[in-house]
Amino acid sequence: MPEAGSKLIHVVLKAEKLFSIGPLEVTNSMVGAVLASVVLLLAMVYFMRMASIVPNRMQSLIELPVELMTGIVAGTTSRWRGYVVLVIGLFVMILVANWLGLLPGVGTIGLRGEQPGELIPFVRAAGADVNFTLGLALVTFVVFVSWAIRLHGPLGYLRELAGEPRYMAPLMFPIHLISELSRLVSLSMRLFGNIFAGEILLGTMLALTTAAAFLLPLALFIPTIFLGLELLFGAVQALVFALLTMAYIILAIGERPGTEHEANAPAGNEGAQASAHAA
Fold first, then answer.
1. Which of 51-60, 87-96, 257-266 has the highest mean pLDDT?
2. Is residue 8 domain-resident?
3. What is the pLDDT of residues 218-245, one digit of tens each?
4. Could you give the CA distance from residue 251 to residue 238 in angstroms, rounded to a whole number?
5. Of 28, 75, 137, 167, which has the fewest CB atoms closer than 10 Å, so is most exposed?
6. What's the pLDDT at 5?
7. Element (H, E) at 258
């Protein structure tokens, strides 16, 4: 039974500090992001050492998201090789970070806080911290702006922001500038909002069903349904973030899909290109 004054669920918007290394504060969301990076690093080492022409199950599992995203990106522009690594990297990083946040003990095992019933988890989902999602959005923002400036020049980029006709530039330039900056906000807040809401939902269902398990043992199976939904939503949010990044870069490049990028697409992606054109 919970102690008097304790809380059934622990909901904190801000990532909580665990310890400090000099001026750097290490939070539980940072630990989640580092763990996701370690998992990806170990997968890369495994793939580099154990990869074979005929893939085994583990190799196929690692290659699946990479091949999926490569097939999608290859059907966009002739310059797809310049940003395919970023799109794949964002997808797998967010996917692993989201799924690690669903493991048992994440968000539920930690230190006792100063307040009664307060818990400071050792590990928290990285996406539940707006600093993590904002950092990824900043990377995306810098990349698609740099593509626009590199291909069209600083003046060309400013002309795009000014819009047409030129006499409307004093009005259109601030609107287009706000539109560019809004992509930064929408990317970060969309991912943060969904992961944070999922964290609260799972915590609430676990608290309620654990309390009801004394009367109805089958209640313990209810969180399993929501856990499966969160696995799906975690993958969808990773895919949405990666595809929006790709879309912004395509807009910055300003190239219409044509036969040139089809000729440069890797072998085996004909089905993905046909699906992209059909859509």
1. 87-96
2. no
3. 556 777 788 888 889 999 999 999 999 9
4. 20
5. 167
6. 42
7. none
Count of residues for the chain? Answer: 279
Residue type, 246: M
Q: Are strands 24-27 and 17-21 parallel, antiparallel or unpaired?
A: antiparallel
Measured over the CA atoms of residue 25, residue 104, residue 200 and residue 90, the dihedral's sign is positive
User: Hey, what are 160's tokens?
Assistant: 């795009």
Domain that holds residue 44: 17-260
Identity of residue 26: V
Please report the pLDDT score of residue 256 as a whole number. 52
Q: Which residue in 12, 16, 36, 11 sits closest to 26, CA to CA?
A: 16
Number of separate domains in the chain: 1
Look up residue 50 and give its two tokens: 């154990």
The Cα–Cα gap between 207 and 185 comes to 32
> CA of 95: how far to CAs of 91, 162, 234, in Å?
6, 37, 6
What burial letters (b/e) apply to 225-234, b meaning 16+ CB within 10 Å? ebeeebeebb
User: Encoding tokens for residue 2?
Assistant: 């919970």
Interval 151-196: pLDDT, tens: 888 888 888 888 777 778 888 888 888 988 898 889 999 999 888 8
Mean pLDDT along residues 104-126: 77
What pLDDT does 275 receive? 39
Asked if residue 106 belongs to a domain, the reply is yes
Instruction: Assess if residue 6 is contained within a domain.
Output: no
Nearest to 136 by CA among 176, 67, 77, 183: 183
